[in-house]
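Protocol step 4 of 6: record predicted structures for both targets in the notebook before any analysis. Target 1:
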Amino acid sequence: MTVQLSDFINLYTLPCGRALYAARQVQAIARDLNLPLIEVPAEVFFDVANDAHNLEFSYRTAKVQPQYGPLATKLDNELDRGLGAFDRAIGNYEDLANSADTEPELTDAYNLLAREAFPRGVTHITLMSFPEEWEEVGKLLPRLQGNGDLAGAVARLSLQPFVAKLAKTHTAFGAELKKTPKVDGPTFDQIRAARAAIQTRARQLVAVVLGTFPLDDDDSVTKRGLLLEPLIAQQRAIAATYKSRRTATDVNPETGEVTELVE
């Protein structure tokens, strides 16, 4: 049977900042008390927490990097304008199509495009995410060109230049979406492993303190309390957030100021 420290020492998961803040305090207390046996595992705990904290920073930085090529936003705006221009060009035929002396073919062409091109409004498409908009326009274009069911109506209203412009922009936009910039950053599996290492080192530190001061005499109780208070304080803070049904928060490792967790 394998016995783990986690079988006996149960701690709330320590975010990196809280772990760093506590580790720094335990190091200082162990140094003041001249307890190298405890200062060493406290330093290891600090180093592991610091490594995890740096990984989280790299992960957060990588997440906010551009997902697509540098021209993606420009081409998205251009595609939005093209869709808007095409929609307005269709709308320009409304009065003529509703005129009694307008030939039926033109009226039918207008009614078909007004009904089918943007059934939920053009903004339904322009407000989509980049890949969603690209995909939606990609479904529309074959209907407007060649043998598509709306191509005849486009030709009857002489809207081919608008469609051609949309097709050109759509192609360029798609190419730009494939230019995913290479961003070096840790994987979330690495983050998860680093956070698990924090818990392991925290338990080991607690075990060393308890093993060094296992008795209930005044000296042992005082020193044990001093050394473990930084960790206990963070455990109390995490427990309080869980009790209020909020997500656990982290702290600035230098000041102890509450911050948000890295997701």
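Target 2:
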Amino acid sequence: MASPLKFNSVSSYVLLLILTFFIPNKGKANKLELTPYIGSMFSSDLQSVDTENRLGVSDDLHFGLALAWQESKTGQGQILINYVGHQISKDQGEHDKFDLVYAHFSGVGHYGKSGYITTLGLGIGASYMKSSFDDGFYPSSTISIGTRYLISKELTFVTELRAYATLVKEEDNIFCHNNECLAVFEGAIWLDTSISIGFAYRF
């Protein structure tokens, strides 16, 4: 069975990214921006081990929090954490929990006039997956497109369409316990997409 990334490897990777983002900005008086998000997340399906059928994964409400800083007039650096709790539908109509936490470091470009801006983001980070059987960390990336409507100097209304791609192994044992498995991944990439709204507060 393939295993997810060890915690120490993820910790070192995250620390390296933090240093990459913050060391070049030492001494700059860049303002920070905090954005809570809420929206819907749509997920890939899983493959049943016992049959050739797919196991549906529910589309659910998700919550996110982003911390951003201004890198230039048209771009931001961003740390984004997002949580969603999915349900796996079993063949007998029963359900099983499948929780995900995404943590990514992104660059976000701003395009357009100051009152109405289109955004395009690209990031890299890790996904934490937890089922009723096991859990683990996996490398992942994210891409987003969105809009920003300026309400005041401090407050902005934000909309966003985002996709997550997580590198997994089809034979992973995250859905297994004592050599009995509920499901496996359908391929090497796990996909989630989300539609979100939020309010960005600059301070």
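Step 5 preliminary note on target 2. The longest strand covers residues 95-112. The domain at 7-21+30-202 is CATH 2.40.160.20 (Porin).
Proceed to step 6 after PI sign-off.
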